[in-house]
Amino acid sequence: MKPLLINGAWVTTSHATGNINPSDVSDVIDEYAQAGRSEAQAAIAAAADACEMWSRSGLQQRHDILQCAGQEILARKDELGNLLAREEGKILSEAIAEVTRAGRIFLFYAGETLRLRGEVIASVRPGVGVEVTREPVGVVGIIAPWNFPIAIPAWKIAPALCYGNTVVFKPAELVPGCAWALADILHRSGVPAGVFNLVTGPGAVVGQTMLEDARIDAITFTGSQATGDRVAAASLPHQRKIQLEMGGKNPLVILDDADLEIAVQCAVDGAFFSTGQRCTASSRLIVTERVHDRFVGALAERVSALRVGHALDASSDIGPVVDAAQLAQDLDHIAVARAQGGVLRAGGEVVERETNGYFLQPALVTETHPDMRINREEVFGPVASVVRVRDYDEALAVANDTEFGLCAGICTTSLKYSSDFKKKAQVGMVMVNLPTAGVDYHVPFGGSKRSSYGSREQGSYAAEFFTRVKTAYTSP
Fold this sequence. Notes:
It is built from 14 helices and 22 strands. The protein is of the alpha/beta class and about 475 residues long. The protein folds into two domains: about 270 residues, Aldehyde Dehydrogenase, Chain A, domain 1, CATH 3.40.605; about 180 residues, Aldehyde Dehydrogenase, Chain A, domain 2 (3-Layer(aba) Sandwich), CATH 3.40.309.10. The strands form six sheets. The chain has a seven-stranded mixed sheet with strand order 14-15-16-13-12-18-19, sandwiched between helices. α1 crosses α7 and α2 crosses α6. The radius of gyration is 23 Å and the shape is globular.
């Protein structure tokens, strides 16, 4: 049994659950301890007790710990990538790339510990000095999703520690392996007792305990809209800071003047790689009518040629869906789209392989219209729909016709249209002639509308969430 990490000690519990490989459900990666309410409360207490000490720790100590952790993650990228591929289902190359990103995030925030700046501002009152500084928020609760089991925890944990906060980390129940490996690395990198705590277990118990406890000063959450709403509602009585990332229904617009090869590659990468299980996936392909048939024909051919298989099989282009529930959800969206008039142009069927896994051939659904369910709700799987439009103006209107606003892409050779789209797309991130999925680790990440709430994640912008601003006045 892999234990919890509470107050610097490894803690076993009476109950553990198996970590199942979605490429082969007979492969149980390991057993992981399940925290109950008492263990979650102990972790919160440990983090609260360590707050003052860690907030006043030397910058060099924080730097060295984050640097050590980042270096070990990079040194073990093949091993950790193998673990990630087994427990989440990304093909091995994507899994190694995610681990590499996590390591670089830790190294970035190791540097950020030495770059935290304040301001000295002249007062309107003669002889009065003004200093503006940043201080840690306190105890940060981290609730992470299953689709990026090491990168998303990294971009939450590293800045939290960098800016002097203590952490209670609850990973998604489907992916405890990467979370435990990361906790072990941080523990051995010298994180003091209580500063970082890992509590694996069900959200209804561990997550709920975190939401109810007034000692949690801030919560950063990535997951579903429904759970994000509960995080927000439960946090309001405590007046804690919250940061919510809750998905997207991201459009990729293809205009008549687009380079067709680039457009098809952007669609394949953005919609289907990582099994489409990315909040930045381009699940709505909005195509102007003059290029529509050529684009759909070329895309359908590419999608049909994608090989779905075991995540560790070098011949696989796409791995399995994460579990049986997600597979059922994907199939339901496809069935409803067809019932509402959509045409299944490619894929969409369950695939059998040598191992028993959750394999779904990527689905391309054409002849859809904007008000169909497949264009309103996040599928979170290898499923993309195509909407035919007259021109750029209609494409922009359809792209913005959603309650989500995470990211949007456009494929065009026109500077006029690309510039206009960057201004008018109602999202937090815009990609021009690039897949919607795939962002740098040193720049801000986040959306608008119902996709995101609170300040941005990643890069130096993370300081907005993980610190509070203090203004001090001094008179001689």
